[in-house]
Amino acid sequence: MANSLIRNPNLANEGKQKLEWVRRHMPVLTHIRQDFEQHRPFQGLRIGMCLHVEAKTAYLAEVLKFGGAEIALCGSNPLSTQDDICAALASLGISVFAWHGCTLEEYNSFLHKVLDTKPQLIIDDGGDLVHLLHTERRDVLAGVLGGAEETTTGILRLKAMERDGVLAFPMLAVNNARSKHLFDNRYGTGQSTWDGIMRTTNLAICGKTVVVAGYGWCGRGVALRGRGLGARVIVVEVDPIRAMEALMDGFEVLPMAEAAKMGDIFVTTTGCISVIRGEHYALMKDGALLANAGHFDVEINKKDLEAISRSRRVVRRNIEEFELKDGRRLYLLAEGRLVNIAAADGHPVEIMDLSFGLQALCMEYLVKEARNLPPKVLPVPLEIDNQVASLWLKSVGVEIDTLTPEQKNYLSSWRHD
Q1: In what order do the strands lie in the sheet with 309-316?
Q2: What is the pLDDT of residue 400?
Q3: Residues of each annotated binding site for NAD(+)
Q4: How many CB atoms lie within 10 A of CB 313?
Q5: Residues at the annotated binding site?
Q6: Binding residue positions for substrate
Q7: 35-56, pLDDT tens digit by residue?
Q8: Domains in the chain, CATH or no CATH each
Q9: What is the model's pLDDT at position 181?
Q10: What is the pTM of this model?
């Protein structure tokens, strides 16, 4: 058993069963694992990871370990950690510092435990590990070659650090790779968000009015799948281009102050604070459901909700009822945390195969190139993006055309006869 802090080591066999299932459905990672086992690109290196500790993440950690790395992993969300997966990973020699429902103090201590291993490579989800490296744990900073960020929220934080001139090493924006945002954010978030809402509430979506805040790639997916389930979908946006796109995609577009009066289910996907707040609660229907699909639990303002409530109670697992002073009841799902993973199993396995395939190959790329890269937020190299997509297509038996030499010349030249 690796040096770990986990809740129950006896759950290891249950976690291994989950791990076995995802291995069978992640062909891209499996191909990469076979290559890593042969070439051992991370031999002698330590990788620190802050991700949702569930089965798909476990396989990524295992693949990197097959490549020779020492792995230290903590959870990026207290409610997404699965204790049986923690136990399974620890039994496989991977250091894990996480348990389900940890307090904020415990969460911070787990981040420190990962950095205590002095990692040379970082995989982050939301930017907390990188933030800690640049503030309280600068003692570890000099040894870090580089890292990769998984989420939109994390990329925003990293770009702010770069803008302020404090980012100390290169970070690859995995979230912005085409194989990530076009698939993970749209199809993954679209399916898993509704999976979390439906599992948690056991209510029908058809016939209801759904308000989706934010029409980035995640919001697009949530809106698309909501409509597919038979809901009337209203989109709330602050970006005129995205609002126009939502309208042209066939969705109604309204300010939150108007949408609040109509919604049965609200889903936030913006990465911003207080998207739903006191002035909106005052307008909502009795029985409205509030769910968040953004990384941090800041999009639905919980303090405002508490302030106008006369009582609160848990009425079903992951559903908290707030009875307002006028008698209306609003229902907050999964404490306002990521509903798709705090109240379900997160993105489909095949979708995370793409995202984690990118992460694995980005780690290999950083081993080779980090010393030649500037301390900035950098795009994932196109060849890595295309390699992941090609591996996935091959795994499902799909072939595509290639350009002929004549076509390549035509596309690359401005001279044509």
Answers
A1: 252-253, 232-236, 209-213, 265-268, 289-292, 329-333, 319-324, 309-316
A2: 96
A3: 151-153, 185, 214-221, 237, 293-295, 340, 347
A4: 9
A5: 125, 150-153, 180, 184-185, 214-221, 237, 293-295, 340, 347
A6: 125, 150, 180, 184
A7: 999 999 999 999 999 999 999 9
A8: 9-180+347-395 (3.40.50.1480), 187-342 (3.40.50.720)
A9: 86
A10: 0.91
